[in-house]
Amino acid sequence: MTNEEILSRLKDAFPDVAFQVQTEETKDFTLIVPAGRLVEVATHLRDHLDFDYLSNVTSVDYPDRFEVVYHLFSMKRGGGVLTLKVHLPDKEHPEVDSVTPIWPGANYQEREVYDLMGISFRNHPDLRRIMLWDGFPGHPLRKDFENRLYTYKELEPTRPKPPNW
Amino acid sequence: MLKTETITINMGPQHPSTHGVFRMVLTLNGETIVDLKPMFGYLHRGLEKTSEGRTYLQAVPFTDRLDYICSMSNNFAYAVAVEKLAGIEVPIRAEYIRVIMAELTRLVNHMLAIGFLFNDLGAWYTPVVYAFRERERILDLFEMASGSRMMCNYIRPGGVSGDLPAEFLPLLRKMIPHLENFVREIRDYLSDNEIFKARAVGVGFLPADMAMAYSITGPVLRASGVKYDVRKAEPYSIYNQFEFDVPTQVAGDVYARYLQRLDEMDESLKILRQAVERIPDGEYATKVPSRLRPPKGEAYARIESPKGELGFYLVSDGSPNPYRWRNRPPSLINLSALREMCLGHKVADVVTILGSIDITLADVDR
């Protein structure tokens, strides 16, 4: 199935959704989906277009928005990647629907995005921090997280005292 | 009706079967597992954030440390991603060297996986010592080429860091029949072991549809009967020029995963034989500036690493540092179905199931 075919079949199924194709600055076939319609589009992709395998879920922090990026493949057909993207312009409280009910493999990756980038997922079955401990200040993968401020002093309340030898 | 209270116990973070620091919170009814929650993060080093502050080439040594058993494959995946992002062509000799290294890494990983699986089952160190003996021979080859046994840092964007030494290929040619013998030896000695079969057959069953839904990749997926291998599904490098099969099993249990790894070792040796015969002379790398500035953009590239699909998602803003550096770890995502595989089994089976998934904790936590 070619990329154009995928796009036209999606447009037939969702005439009211404004799909954007990102043509510049990407090496992969990239579709930008409105955040509110993500679950419907994802379910359709899985059930009718054979995208049965969600490889990667990740997020990027841009100055004006957060982006959640999904890399989909088809195990039945083989072949290349379909990148789905969701733009979240709300930098204060970014939130998007979880795709874990559709592809359970997204579970840990969404928790990782929640932990390290601070994006919440609605309807996620178990949304907790995964890599860092509870009470860790901030989300390290955000661009405003200062590595240089990541000093011992900053973290003193949540870490055990250093050994005295 | 007779009822017992469930109890909750922590398995790990210091448990020998986890091969690292990994904790599972088990809820038990008697000895039967009714719930399992994996806990991660004991080894989290923040490699994604750290790499955003480095140049593209400075991040190569970090990839060694993702999965320290398969450092060559990790270098390979990262190099493929950077080359896709920056549009770098790789000389054909370098591609052959990469394929040789990646397949040797697969052999190393699978023989260790099998050895440690038996270790977990209580065959204390006899199978694993045999596996280590063969692994050392392969690591000697890695050391000849890269100067380092484990943290190879050999496959770089643009090619490899240096040409193969003159003794490398003759030695590898001599070693291939030896390794084939070794695989046959493992198969003969261990496959029909009654204790192993009693512990492995029917344990940790993972149906094919569930494996696909949970994004399981690699030998675990193929042992459940799904014929999916990135080398065939979306060939990268020069894998479309080699003749090899993608073996699968039907059973989807611990025993099938063990057999799957043996079959994959045979296929790797097949690829190695072809690569050693056909490797051409020529350049071993394209010149890549040390402060590489890929054009503004993004790319996702993946390879079939020994543990599963290893992907890199890179976003460039035109500067020498990556804007976003994301690694898709096969070990973490293969653990997604651990709970489903363990439910209803006994505590001792968790050790077997975890060993058959074959994880590296450095790759899980990054």
> How big a fraction of the residues of chain B is strand?
5-15%
Helix and strand content put the structural class of chain B at: alpha+beta
**What is the β-strand count of chain B?**
8
Q: How would you sum up the major sheet of chain A?
A: 5 strands, mixed
Overall average pLDDT of chain A: 83
Can you give the helix content of chain B as a percent range?
A: 40-55%
Structure description:
The complex is a heterodimer of chains A (165) and B (366). The model of chain A is unreliable at 149-154 (pLDDT under 50). In chain A, the strands form two sheets. A five-stranded mixed beta sheet of chain A has the order 1-2-5-4-3, with helices on one face. A two-stranded parallel sheet of chain A has the order 6-7. Chain A has helices at residues 3-13, 38-48, 107-117, 152-155, and strands spanning 20-22, 29-33, 53-61, 66-73, 82-88, 95-97, 120-122. In chain A, 22% of the residues lie in helices and 23% in strands. The longest helix of chain B has 30 residues, at 92-121. With 366 residues, chain B is an alpha+beta fold. In chain B, helix 5 (126-146) runs antiparallel to helix 6. In chain B, strand 4 and strand 5 form a beta hairpin. Helices cover 48% and strands 13% of the residues of chain B. Chain B has 15 helices and eight strands. Classes of the chains: A alpha/beta (165), B alpha+beta (366).
Features:
heterodimer; A: 165 residues; alpha/beta; five-stranded mixed β-sheet; 7 strands; 22% helix; 23% strand; globular; B: 366 residues; three-stranded antiparallel β-sheet; 13% strand
Describe what is shown at a glance:
The complex is a heterodimer of chains A (165) and B (366). Chain A is α/β, with parallel strands linked by helices.
Set out the fold topology.
The complex is a heterodimer of chains A (165) and B (366).
Chain A: H1 3-13, E1 20-22, E2 29-33, H2 38-48, E3 53-61, E4 66-73, E5 82-88, E6 95-97, H3 107-117, E7 120-122, H4 152-155
Parallel strand pairs in A: 2-5, 6-7
Antiparallel strand pairs in A: 1-2, 3-4, 4-5
Chain B: E1 7-11, E2 23-29, E3 32-39, H1 47-52, H2 60-64, H3 71-86, H4 92-121, H5 126-146, E4 155-156, E5 159-160, H6 168-190, H7 194-200, H8 208-213, H9 219-223, H10 230-233, H11 254-278, E6 297-305, E7 308-316, E8 322-328, H12 330-334, H13 338-342, H14 347-357, H15 361-365
Helix pairs in contact in B: 3-4, 4-5, 4-11, 4-14, 5-6, 6-11, 11-14
